[in-house]
């Protein structure tokens, strides 16, 4: 079973937990999500991780495409684009604006308690990849504070998570109402022509 499949089944993108954290995050940022299309996007946005051999590598970064295609079939092209743009890396690579779903998705990560997040991501094998990728992405950005940089370079998973959550909270506050994302650097893969 691939790491992406494990993530959707019982990891960071667990289909029975993550959408609920996302709904709470959306409520905190934008009010209660009354639109059924939002709920569909909460459940479908990460479904494309199934069968992916990595989370942030060239294959993993294309995870947005499956959920976006399903949303497009169900609700139209604007919902496909909304769902695909939940990844700030995908959005940047494709010259698109990240969506509100992206901001809420980041807050869902912040709201997930360490006592739940760390065991889930250790069990799936995601944690080591996330820790490595965070260090790589940090090297290309001046937007990490000294505190965050020190935590992200720690071998201790709790300290690392503390640093990443601090950075993510600040990214959310800076970008919750849209705007240009100058914080996000690097993209692993060439874009597909879909959702342009």
Identify low-pLDDT runs: 187-193
What is the tally of helical segments? Answer: 11
Number of domains: 1
Report, as a whole number of angstroms, the end-to-end distance: 32 Å
Q: Provide the succession of SSEs.
A: HHHHHHHHHHH
- Share of helix among residues? 55-70%
Q: State the total count of DSSP E strands.
A: 0
In angstroms, what is the radius of gyration?
Answer: 16 Å
Q: What percent strand?
A: under 5%
Tell me what you see in this structure.
Helix content is 61%, strand content 0%. The chain has one domain (3-175). The protein is mainly α and 196 residues long. Helix 3 packs antiparallel against helix 4 and helix 10 (146-152) packs across helix 11 (157-175).
Provide the fold topology.
Elements: H1 3-10, H2 18-30, H3 36-44, H4 64-75, H5 77-84, H6 88-93, H7 100-111, H8 114-124, H9 126-139, H10 146-152, H11 157-175
Helix pairs in contact: 1-8, 2-7, 3-4, 4-5, 7-11, 10-11
Concise overview:
By secondary structure, the protein is mainly alpha-helical.
Offer a few descriptive terms.
single chain; 196 residues; mainly alpha
């Amino acid at each position: 079973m691939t790491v992406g499949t494990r993530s959707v089944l019982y990891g960071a993108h667990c289909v029975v937990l993550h959408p609920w954290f996302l709904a709470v995050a959306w409520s905190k940022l934008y009010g209660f999500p009354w639109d059924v299309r939002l709920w569909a996007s909460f459940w479908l946005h990460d479904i494309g991780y199934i069968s992916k051999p990595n989370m942030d590598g060239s294959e993993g970064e294309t995870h947005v495409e499956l959920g976006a295609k399903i949303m497009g079939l169900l609700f139209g092209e604007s919902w496909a684009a909304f769902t695909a743009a939940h990844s700030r890396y995908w959005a940047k690579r494709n010259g698109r604006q990240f969506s509100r779903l992206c901001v809420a998705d980041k807050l869902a990560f912040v709201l997930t308690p360490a006592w739940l997040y760390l065991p889930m991501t250790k069990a799936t094998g995601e944690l080591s990849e996330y820790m490595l990728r965070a260090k790589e992405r940090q090297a290309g950005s001046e937007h990490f504070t000294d505190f965050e940089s020190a935590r992200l370079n720690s071998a201790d998973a709790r300290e690392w998570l503390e640093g990443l959550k601090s950075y993510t909270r600040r990214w959310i506050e800076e970008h919750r109402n849209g705007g240009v994302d100058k914080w996000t650097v690097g993209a692993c893969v060439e874009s597909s022509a879909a959702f342009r």
